[in-house]
Amino acid sequence: MEVLRKSSAFASEVLDVFDRSLTEKELVSQSKALCKDYILSRLNQNGLGWSKTEINFSPSNNSMLAEASLVLLCLGDELECIQPGLYRNVARQLNISVAMESMVSDAFLGVATEIFSAGITWGKVVSMYAVAGALAVDCVRHGYPDTVHVLVDSLGQFVRRFLVPWLKRRGGWVEITKCVVKVDLTPERHWLSSTIESLKYFLTTLYVCIMKEQ
Protein backbone atom coordinates (compact mmCIF):
# COMPACT_ATOMS: atom_id res chain seq x y z
CA MET A 1 0.00 0.00 0.00
CA GLU A 2 2.85 2.36 0.87
CA VAL A 3 4.45 1.66 -2.50
CA LEU A 4 1.20 2.51 -4.27
CA ARG A 5 0.89 5.77 -2.34
CA LYS A 6 4.44 6.76 -3.22
CA SER A 7 3.90 5.80 -6.85
CA SER A 8 0.70 7.84 -7.00
CA ALA A 9 2.38 10.84 -5.39
CA PHE A 10 5.29 10.62 -7.83
CA ALA A 11 2.92 10.42 -10.81
CA SER A 12 1.04 13.45 -9.51
CA GLU A 13 4.29 15.42 -9.19
CA VAL A 14 5.35 14.46 -12.72
CA LEU A 15 1.99 15.53 -14.17
CA ASP A 16 2.14 18.79 -12.23
CA VAL A 17 5.60 19.59 -13.56
CA PHE A 18 4.51 18.64 -17.09
CA ASP A 19 1.47 20.91 -16.84
CA ARG A 20 3.69 23.83 -15.79
CA SER A 21 6.23 23.24 -18.55
CA LEU A 22 4.49 25.67 -20.90
CA THR A 23 2.82 28.83 -19.66
CA GLU A 24 -0.33 30.37 -21.06
CA LYS A 25 1.70 33.31 -22.33
CA GLU A 26 4.10 31.02 -24.18
CA LEU A 27 1.33 28.98 -25.79
CA VAL A 28 -0.57 32.07 -26.92
CA SER A 29 2.62 33.63 -28.27
CA GLN A 30 3.48 30.45 -30.17
CA SER A 31 -0.05 30.18 -31.55
CA LYS A 32 0.10 33.76 -32.84
CA ALA A 33 3.53 33.18 -34.38
CA LEU A 34 2.16 30.12 -36.19
CA CYS A 35 -0.80 32.20 -37.35
CA LYS A 36 1.49 34.86 -38.81
CA ASP A 37 3.47 32.18 -40.61
CA TYR A 38 0.30 30.56 -41.94
CA ILE A 39 -1.14 33.87 -43.14
CA LEU A 40 2.15 34.87 -44.78
CA SER A 41 2.17 31.58 -46.67
CA ARG A 42 -1.39 32.06 -47.89
CA LEU A 43 -0.80 35.67 -48.95
CA ASN A 44 2.24 34.64 -50.97
CA GLN A 45 0.36 31.69 -52.49
CA ASN A 46 -2.26 34.13 -53.73
CA GLY A 47 0.31 36.46 -55.27
CA LEU A 48 -0.16 39.19 -52.68
CA GLY A 49 3.57 39.21 -51.95
CA TRP A 50 3.81 40.21 -48.33
CA SER A 51 7.16 40.02 -46.59
CA LYS A 52 7.91 38.91 -43.03
CA THR A 53 8.68 42.54 -42.20
CA GLU A 54 5.24 43.71 -43.34
CA ILE A 55 3.47 41.16 -41.17
CA ASN A 56 5.84 41.86 -38.26
CA PHE A 57 6.99 38.24 -38.22
CA SER A 58 10.23 37.39 -36.49
CA PRO A 59 11.59 33.94 -37.34
CA SER A 60 11.74 31.73 -34.27
CA ASN A 61 14.92 30.04 -33.11
CA ASN A 62 12.74 27.28 -31.69
CA SER A 63 13.24 24.28 -33.97
CA MET A 64 10.16 22.57 -32.54
CA LEU A 65 7.97 25.54 -33.42
CA ALA A 66 9.48 25.72 -36.90
CA GLU A 67 8.64 22.05 -37.43
CA ALA A 68 5.13 22.57 -36.06
CA SER A 69 4.66 25.46 -38.48
CA LEU A 70 5.72 23.30 -41.42
CA VAL A 71 3.32 20.52 -40.41
CA LEU A 72 0.49 23.00 -39.85
CA LEU A 73 1.02 24.45 -43.33
CA CYS A 74 1.14 20.99 -44.91
CA LEU A 75 -2.06 19.92 -43.16
CA GLY A 76 -3.66 23.21 -44.18
CA ASP A 77 -2.71 22.53 -47.80
CA GLU A 78 -4.31 19.11 -47.56
CA LEU A 79 -7.49 20.47 -46.00
CA GLU A 80 -7.82 23.22 -48.60
CA CYS A 81 -7.20 20.76 -51.44
CA ILE A 82 -9.98 18.49 -50.21
CA GLN A 83 -12.51 21.33 -50.21
CA PRO A 84 -10.99 24.34 -52.02
CA GLY A 85 -14.20 26.35 -52.31
CA LEU A 86 -14.65 26.36 -48.57
CA TYR A 87 -11.53 28.44 -47.95
CA ARG A 88 -11.90 30.98 -50.74
CA ASN A 89 -13.84 34.22 -50.53
CA VAL A 90 -14.71 33.43 -46.93
CA ALA A 91 -15.72 37.03 -46.20
CA ARG A 92 -18.28 36.85 -48.99
CA GLN A 93 -19.54 33.48 -47.74
CA LEU A 94 -20.04 35.04 -44.31
CA ASN A 95 -21.51 38.18 -45.87
CA ILE A 96 -19.21 40.51 -43.92
CA SER A 97 -17.32 43.66 -44.87
CA VAL A 98 -13.55 43.41 -44.46
CA ALA A 99 -13.53 47.20 -44.11
CA MET A 100 -14.85 46.78 -40.56
CA GLU A 101 -12.19 45.28 -38.30
CA SER A 102 -14.64 44.52 -35.50
CA MET A 103 -16.90 42.61 -37.89
CA VAL A 104 -13.99 40.53 -39.21
CA SER A 105 -12.84 39.78 -35.67
CA ASP A 106 -16.35 38.84 -34.50
CA ALA A 107 -16.87 36.66 -37.56
CA PHE A 108 -13.59 34.83 -37.03
CA LEU A 109 -14.29 34.24 -33.34
CA GLY A 110 -17.77 33.01 -34.22
CA VAL A 111 -16.41 30.57 -36.78
CA ALA A 112 -13.75 29.35 -34.35
CA THR A 113 -16.37 28.83 -31.64
CA GLU A 114 -18.50 26.80 -34.04
CA ILE A 115 -15.54 24.70 -35.17
CA PHE A 116 -14.81 23.62 -31.60
CA SER A 117 -18.42 23.38 -30.41
CA ALA A 118 -18.27 19.58 -30.29
CA GLY A 119 -14.73 19.23 -28.93
CA ILE A 120 -11.10 19.88 -29.80
CA THR A 121 -8.96 17.93 -32.27
CA TRP A 122 -5.89 18.81 -34.29
CA GLY A 123 -8.04 18.67 -37.42
CA LYS A 124 -10.22 21.45 -36.04
CA VAL A 125 -7.17 23.46 -35.03
CA VAL A 126 -5.95 23.27 -38.64
CA SER A 127 -9.41 24.39 -39.80
CA MET A 128 -9.24 27.45 -37.57
CA TYR A 129 -5.90 28.46 -39.07
CA ALA A 130 -7.21 27.87 -42.58
CA VAL A 131 -10.13 30.21 -41.92
CA ALA A 132 -7.76 32.86 -40.52
CA GLY A 133 -5.55 32.53 -43.59
CA ALA A 134 -8.50 32.79 -45.98
CA LEU A 135 -9.89 35.86 -44.24
CA ALA A 136 -6.45 37.49 -44.29
CA VAL A 137 -6.27 36.96 -48.06
CA ASP A 138 -9.69 38.61 -48.44
CA CYS A 139 -8.65 41.58 -46.30
CA VAL A 140 -5.38 42.25 -48.14
CA ARG A 141 -6.92 41.68 -51.55
CA HIS A 142 -9.57 44.33 -50.84
CA GLY A 143 -7.09 46.86 -49.50
CA TYR A 144 -7.31 46.36 -45.73
CA PRO A 145 -3.95 44.87 -44.72
CA ASP A 146 -4.13 46.19 -41.15
CA THR A 147 -6.95 43.75 -40.47
CA VAL A 148 -4.42 40.91 -40.75
CA HIS A 149 -3.04 41.91 -37.36
CA VAL A 150 -6.57 41.98 -35.95
CA LEU A 151 -7.02 38.39 -37.10
CA VAL A 152 -3.78 37.30 -35.45
CA ASP A 153 -4.82 38.96 -32.20
CA SER A 154 -8.28 37.40 -32.42
CA LEU A 155 -6.78 33.95 -32.85
CA GLY A 156 -4.54 34.56 -29.86
CA GLN A 157 -7.56 35.65 -27.84
CA PHE A 158 -9.44 32.48 -28.77
CA VAL A 159 -6.49 30.25 -27.92
CA ARG A 160 -6.13 31.94 -24.53
CA ARG A 161 -9.79 31.50 -23.69
CA PHE A 162 -10.44 28.01 -24.99
CA LEU A 163 -7.40 26.05 -26.19
CA VAL A 164 -4.59 26.64 -23.67
CA PRO A 165 -5.58 23.81 -21.26
CA TRP A 166 -5.91 21.38 -24.18
CA LEU A 167 -2.53 22.40 -25.59
CA LYS A 168 -0.93 22.11 -22.16
CA ARG A 169 -2.15 18.55 -21.72
CA ARG A 170 -0.45 17.67 -24.99
CA GLY A 171 2.82 19.32 -24.18
CA GLY A 172 2.18 22.21 -26.55
CA TRP A 173 2.45 22.42 -30.30
CA VAL A 174 5.02 19.64 -30.56
CA GLU A 175 2.25 17.03 -30.68
CA ILE A 176 0.97 18.23 -34.05
CA THR A 177 4.22 16.97 -35.57
CA LYS A 178 3.13 13.45 -34.59
CA CYS A 179 0.05 13.74 -36.81
CA VAL A 180 2.05 13.04 -39.95
CA VAL A 181 4.60 10.46 -40.95
CA LYS A 182 4.70 11.10 -44.69
CA VAL A 183 4.87 14.23 -46.80
CA ASP A 184 1.76 13.34 -48.82
CA LEU A 185 -0.35 13.41 -45.61
CA THR A 186 -2.93 10.99 -47.04
CA PRO A 187 -3.40 9.24 -43.65
CA GLU A 188 -4.89 12.49 -42.32
CA ARG A 189 -7.92 12.46 -44.60
CA HIS A 190 -10.05 10.42 -42.22
CA TRP A 191 -10.00 13.00 -39.41
CA LEU A 192 -10.06 16.05 -41.67
CA SER A 193 -13.14 14.92 -43.58
CA SER A 194 -15.45 15.16 -40.56
CA THR A 195 -14.30 18.72 -39.95
CA ILE A 196 -15.12 19.67 -43.53
CA GLU A 197 -18.66 18.37 -43.23
CA SER A 198 -19.32 20.61 -40.22
CA LEU A 199 -17.68 23.61 -41.89
CA LYS A 200 -19.96 23.35 -44.94
CA TYR A 201 -22.95 24.27 -42.81
CA PHE A 202 -21.69 27.03 -40.56
CA LEU A 203 -19.81 29.03 -43.20
CA THR A 204 -23.12 29.66 -44.97
CA THR A 205 -25.14 30.45 -41.85
CA LEU A 206 -22.74 31.89 -39.29
CA TYR A 207 -23.21 35.56 -40.14
CA VAL A 208 -26.90 35.31 -39.29
CA CYS A 209 -26.02 33.72 -35.94
CA ILE A 210 -23.46 36.43 -35.18
CA MET A 211 -25.97 39.18 -35.87
CA LYS A 212 -28.54 37.51 -33.63
CA GLU A 213 -26.07 37.47 -30.74
CA GLN A 214 -25.30 41.18 -30.96
UniProtKB/TrEMBL annotation:
Keywords: Apoptosis, Membrane, Transmembrane, Transmembrane helix. It is a single-pass membrane protein. It is found in: Membrane. The keyword Iron-sulfur does not apply. One of its GO terms (molecular function) is BH domain binding. GO terms for cellular component: mitochondrial outer membrane. A motif (BH4) lies at residues 31-50. It holds the Pfam family Bcl-2. One of its GO terms (biological process) is regulation of apoptotic process. Residues 31-50 form the Apoptosis regulator Bcl-2 family BH4 domain. Belongs to the Bcl-2 family. This is BCL2-related ovarian killer b. It comes from Nothobranchius kuhntae. The gene is BOKB.
